[in-house]
Amino acid sequence: MSMSEIAEETVSTDVSETERLRGELAVLREENERLRAEYVRARQSQYRQSATTLVLVGVLVLAAGAVVASARTVLVALGGTGVFLGVLIYFLTPEQFISASVGEAVYASLARNESQAVTELGLTDERVYVPRGAGESGGVSDVRLFVPQHPEYEVPAEAALDDRFVVVDDPKGRGMALRPSAADLYADLEDAVSGEPSEEVGELARELSDALVEEFELVESAWAETVGESRVAVRVSGSAMGGVDRFDHPVASLLGVSVARAVEEATAAETVEDGDEFVVTCSWMVDETD
Question: Mind telling me which residue stretches traverse the membrane in this protein (predicted)?
Answer without folding.
Answer: 51-68, 74-92
